[in-house]
Amino acid sequence: MNFNIKNSVYWIGKIDWELRKFHGDEYSAHRGSTYNSYLVKEEKVALIDTVWAPFTKEFVENLASMIDLNKIDYVIANHAESDHSGALPELMRHIPETPVYCTKNGVKSLTGHYHKDWNFNVVKTGDRLSLGQKELVFVEAPMLHWPDSMFCYLTGDNILFSNDAFGQHYASEFMFNDLVDQAELFAEGIKYYANILTPFSSMVAQKIKEVLSLNLPLDIICPSHGVIWRDKPEQIVEQYMRWADDYQENQITIIYDTMWNGTRVMAEHIAKGIGLSDKAVNVKLYNLAKTDKNDVIAEVFKSKAILVGSPTINKGILTSVAAILEEIRGLKFKNKKAAAFGCYGWSGESVKMIAENLTTAGFDAVDEGLKVMWNPDDAGIESCVEYGKGLPVKLA
Ligand code: FEO
């Protein structure tokens, strides 16, 4: 499959409808994904990125159906991660002398992955590569989201090839932002940002400002996953600026795990209490053992505060709670508040442990949390409701 995007620019990637797990098993892809590769057929021909290795054969065949591989003058590797470079070894076996343009860190990453001495050409921000009438302008984008990441921009057609930035794990035969369901598109966009780009938000904002300062006209953004932004491409740029600015909605997310429902009952009654004193706040509850962790992270991203609950087990916390706390620690959320809760039978360490983890992760713990012994009785339930009622003031 391939299709024209504009003038001499073609999409030649792979729509992966079957994908459900990405980054090994780390990232859920409920709506599949795409690996976007682009062919620019000007006087000189440039190929921008490839696809994930399992699709190498069909990718190279597809490419060869569009152009004699020997007519490809330049291979651009915007990013070395395997989902974009997986087909490179096979492609380069056909055209071993073709120059590969990438950042200095791209050489390290590609060599580290494939151990091949390809004809690397290192580029830096502002470097230009002539394709004839048009040029590719390179912009390094370190840590968006790997050290090697870069964008490139095609003059004349005003297309930004942004690699992972502005992408979504979202399979669609439509392939353009104006043709797909907008709620699905932005749900996948925010999940992608929350789970992958959150730790690099300051760099996201800085890089966008840097690119905007170049005053390059922008007609289309071609990311490496999901749909192409041809309709008002600035909308996703503006959305990224909002997401990068310690994004939050009027939402409190309560995440917990439970053994015999005591901590679940606590969660539900804390939620009830919050609702009694703040009718406007969107309170959402997720049992971590039953909910996809990447979906939970997207909800944490949207929240102004989170409550994390676990009963005490073996003087510690349940493993699903430990896992999400580790995920949260690594994502470096900013400007969010938090509290801990949980029931216990005898020693009762869980709440203190969760609160310490949240503080370490950069959350502002609003109090010492709430512990209830055994399954909450009427008094215990009332204490949860009262605790919830007091939270909006503490979170203000
Ligand atoms: Fe889509 Fe960082 O690879």
Task: Tell me what the structure shows.
The chain has twelve helices and 22 strands. By secondary structure, it is α/β, with parallel strands linked by helices. The strands form five sheets. The protein has a seven-stranded mixed β-sheet. The longest helix is centred in the C-terminal third of the chain and has 18 residues. The model has no long low-confidence stretch (mean pLDDT 97). The site of MU-OXO-diiron has 9 residues, from helix 2. MU-OXO-diiron binds next to helix 2.
Order of strands in the sheet with most strands: 1-2-7-8-9-10-11
The share of residues in helices is: 25-40%
Distance between the termini: 52 Å
Return the average pLDDT rounded to an integer: 97
As a percent range, the share of strand residues is 15-25%
Kindly provide the radius of gyration, computed on alpha-carbon positions and rounded to a whole number of angstroms: 24 Å
Overall number of strands: 22
List of distinct ligands in this structure: MU-OXO-diiron
Low-confidence stretches: none
Helix and strand composition category: alpha/beta
Instruction: Indicate the overall shape.
Output: elongated
Task: Tell me the number of helical segments per DSSP (H or I, 4 or more residues long).
Answer: 12
